Amino acid sequence: MLNHWCLAQVESSDVSGKVFDSSNKSAVVGATVLFQNVKDSSRSKFAITDAEGAFMIQQVERAFYKVQIQSLGFKKYSRLIRLTGVDVDLGVVSLQPDSIMMQAVEIEGELVPVETKGDTTVYNADAFKVNPDASSTDLVSKMPGIIVDGSGVSANGETVEQVLLDGKRFFGQDPLLSLNSIPAEVVQKVEVFDQQSEQSQFTGFDDGNTVKTMNVVTKDGKKNGKFGNVYGGLGTDDRYKAGLTLNSFNGDKRLTLLGMSNNINQQNFSSEDLAGLGGGRRSGFRRGGNNNLMIGTQEGITQTHSLGTNFTNNWGKKATFEGSYFFNKSKNDNNTESSRETFLGDSTQFYEQTQLSGSDNTNHRLNARLDYQINDITRLIYIPSFSYQENEGLENTIGITRDENENIINQTVNDFVGNTKAYNLSNRLTLQRKLKKTGRSISFQIDQQSSTLDQSNVYQGLVLDSLIQYLTDETSASISPRITYTEPIGLTGQLSASYDYNIIKRDSKKDTYLVDPETEESTFSNILSNHFESDYSTHVADVAFTNRNMGRFFRFSLAYQHATLNNQHTFPEQGSFNSGFHNILPSAMGRIDFKGEANMFIRYATNTNEPSINQLQNVLDNSNPLFISIGNPELNQSYTHSLIARYTKPNTDKNRSLSNFTRIQATANFMTNSTRFATQDTVLAGGVFIQKGTQIAQPINLDGYWNISNTTTYSAAISKLKSNLNTTLDLRYQRLPGMTNDMLNIADAYTAGVRISLVSNISEKVDFNVYYNVSGNKVINSIQSNTNSSYLTQTTGAKLNWIFGKGFVFRNDTYFEKYNGFSEAFNTNYILWNMSLAKKFLKNDLGELEVSVFDLLGQNQSFTQNINPGFVEEIQTQVLQQYFMLTFTYQIRAFQKSN
Amino acid sequence: MKNVAFLLLIPVLCFNNVFAQGFDPAEMVAREKENLYKTITDLSDDQIMLIDGVYEEYLQTFTELRDEIRKTRDWQSFRPKIMALQEEKDQLMFDILNQDQFKLYTDQMETNRKNRQNRRRSAENQSPPGS
């Protein structure tokens, strides 16, 4: 009687459904839907939800199934269903976001500090104890693998390019500004991942264009209300500081206001506002693709005034708006001493320089983003960006070049005054549309960018009594339309094809006048003036195949690029230099999930870079008389292969985690410098005088550039000490080719560094961070292999924040550095000791009065190093000296209960 | 005709006799499930959970049917309803068990059926004719 069931095995059915986010009813893209056959797990089936959250599994045989639906950031959905050979529509399955209500439940025991969920590393904030007034910067600094310094934030060796707040942009792409504006108290967790492009998010398939992102997730009880702080302080030596940070969150509507003014080098934002154009610094240093000025926060003493606002909100049900405006005005004074060792092959030159400089910089920056869901299948995104900068600078330079026997070869004493105005405008418009078949889509994107730069610089040489005025007028305009089509292949694959056209038109007019110091009569200098135009256009056609499967993902793409570089020299002579390039640009990437939450991500990509107009324009730039440069209109684009591999293995049971990040870059036609040294004093046509030993650099293309780095981070919780031990091992190798006096020179630079830190997790009242860092660097120049240069830096630091008694706070920050440099003159060691004692008062300890001292021992110093093919350089800069300060701070905390 | 009528009475008398002798469906279901778990030893946790649910539903429906028949005294309809219930249980078990497991299940059901048949014959022999 029961045997007729055997015939029923051939029955099968199709199952479909949609997966939505229960909190906001949006489709969950890329969720894994698993139908586990209870009879035989090998006959299970699965699907991945598409851009509409829909899935379809065909020919599912008759049986009971355990349906499991998982997606990053959501609780797992599980249900048993029975399929009897009839097609089934499961309808809408709602996934609950993965959040924990911390208010009503007190969790005992250790919280897992680090977890890996797919390609995201999640740091749970409560696993890292910080003092009540800490910012998110202080919080993430404790997280293993994350380093915060003046130039920005990095996670396991990769630079974090943007910080989101609950998934939304916050102050554009300025990680430092974002983290400093968010108090640690409101943070539930920090997620580090590669944010996919708009196209990837739309189609559900990664196209390889990602941005390293840190997403700060706020606690449930802290998503509504007002919070921030206001402070003011006065100190000795005319030092002061004042500021305001106010966040007003009301559901989707979020407003942040910032204000700051101080003369103690506190900037709280990254370098893009200050070093984007080089300001008044002479243009000689901008040649050769190695800009020594892009060094993060300004050195010396800076007085800063800044204002900023960030606003996000949903407009109706279909649109979201994000926008920010930032203004800053800063005044910087600096005194630097540098020592440069240049290798000529048969001899060595030593250049020493003392420079006094000052600059005034004003910057406006506006960013916005409008995301409009026109209907279920059409989406429009508009991203405008505008910046305007004014800079006035003054430099007084004394420089001497000596040979190995300490004989003077040349010298300079000069003043340089610069005045720059520049603006940059860009717009991006993206239109995406889903077509009838699930997974099929088409999108259009157009990028526009335009910028201008006006410079008026004056050079006065005090040794040769010369006066030169440099006037520069540069404009750049580009437009780039792109079209992309995607087609689903099977249940897990996607084929995409795209075409991209880009054209950049650049124009540079440099007019130089020689001015008689006595009569002030100006004579136009043909040899130092130049009008130059450069057009660079590319056509790129790309085809890619992507496949997602359980526990692994891969993508292969192949692109063909046809590029043309047309350079026109219109003054003083006429000439044209045209080049065409044909390139094949393959790329591949994949991710594999291993057992025990470990995963590996690998990406290989190729790309080209075109030379800048300053590198192309063949005009003599003698604004720095001992370091002259000239452009090369025959410079070609470079071609780079890059490979990155990232391995992450957390052990949540034992509160440990291991990660390794490797990057390998190799560049053909690398843009570097060919440097010649004048063998005697020379006067060029037009009255340009060149001293003996003067360096004349011109950019050229050379093969053989390599850059290899490997960073390993290991962290473990030490229960007995209630602390986390974080260790980082950093290994780097760089091969820099160059030419010196027509001889090939390869600079091999090796770096090895170890950092060990013990970060407390005892309580909010006791918070310490003890670390030791040692970094060794060695440079070997092939042109003079018997003279290799090395420097060693050892730093030991101890930070303590101790709350005791009735609202007393003791803060101590001690930093010891021992530096052994290229030259013995720079060998030094010093202690930077900062300390303060504060008393909290007012209700809930929201007020605080603090007495602090900066550099108690008066030993503060600063060193930087530059490594280039053919020379190594050490620079010591002016730093803030000892001062005492009295500061009042009030914490604003007015949270509303969530609905 | 008398013999036919007598024959028709036998299953009814049997069922009636079963109910009159204090038959406990819960015990029957528990025993059947226990024997099943002893016979099929490689069930997964999900299968066990589903089987427990199937037998719980089966027991509840069987009990309701028995109570209904007691009220209506419509013994004629009891057997086809029980047969339909059994069929439905078998369908569910087919969807839960793999081929080998289902073979063991069907063998056990066949054994149970033969045992019931033997008990019925034994009851028939004991009942006086025409009563």
Question: What is the secondary structure topology, with strand pairs?
Answer:
The complex is a heterodimer of chains A (about 900) and B (about 130).
Chain A: E1 12-21, E2 32-37, E3 45-48, E4 54-61, E5 63-70, E6 77-83, E7 88-95, E8 114-117, E9 120-124, H1 136-141, E10 146-149, E11 152-155, E12 158-159, E13 162-165, E14 168-169, H2 175-180, E15 187-196, H3 198-203, E16 210-218, E17 225-235, E18 240-250, E19 253-262, H4 272-275, E20 301-315, E21 319-343, E22 348-375, E23 378-402, E24 408-434, E25 441-461, E26 466-489, E27 493-515, E28 522-524, E29 530-549, E30 552-571, E31 575-593, E32 599-609, H5 613-616, E33 620-621, E34 627-630, E35 638-651, E36 656-668, E37 670-677, E38 682-684, E39 688-690, E40 695-702, E41 705-718, E42 723-740, E43 743-760, E44 766-781, E45 789-804, E46 808-820, E47 828-841, E48 847-854, E49 863-868, E50 871-877, E51 883-895
Parallel strand pairs in A: 1-7, 13-16, 34-40, 37-42
Antiparallel strand pairs in A: 1-4, 2-3, 2-5, 5-6, 8-9, 9-15, 10-11, 11-12, 13-14, 15-16, 17-18, 17-51, 18-19, 19-20, 20-21, 21-22, 21-50, 22-23, 23-24, 24-25, 25-26, 26-27, 27-28, 27-29, 29-30, 30-31, 31-32, 32-35, 33-34, 35-36, 36-41, 37-40, 38-39, 41-42, 42-43, 43-44, 44-45, 45-46, 46-47, 47-48, ...
Chain B: H1 2-20, H2 25-39, H3 45-72, H4 75-96, H5 99-126
Describe what you observe in this structure.
The complex is a heterodimer of chains A (899) and B (131). By secondary structure, chain A is an all-beta fold. The longest helix of chain A has 6 residues, at 136-141. Mean pLDDT of chain A is 85; it is low at 5-9, 100-109 and 271-297. Chain A contains five helices and 51 strands. In chain A, a hairpin with a 4-residue loop joins strand 17 and strand 18 (240-250). Chain A folds into two domains: 3-95, Immunoglobulins (Immunoglobulin-like, Sandwich); 232-297 and 305-895, Maltoporin, Chain A. Chain A has a 26-stranded antiparallel beta barrel. In chain A, strands 8-9-15-16-13-14 form a six-stranded mixed sheet. The radius of gyration of chain A is 30 Å and the shape is globular. Chain B is mainly α and 131 residues long. Chain B has one domain. Helix content of chain B is 85%, strand content 0%. Chain B has helices spanning 2-20, 25-39, 45-72, 75-96, 99-126. The radius of gyration of chain B is 17 Å and the shape is globular. The two termini of chain B are 16 Å apart. The model of chain B is unreliable at 1-21 (pLDDT under 50).
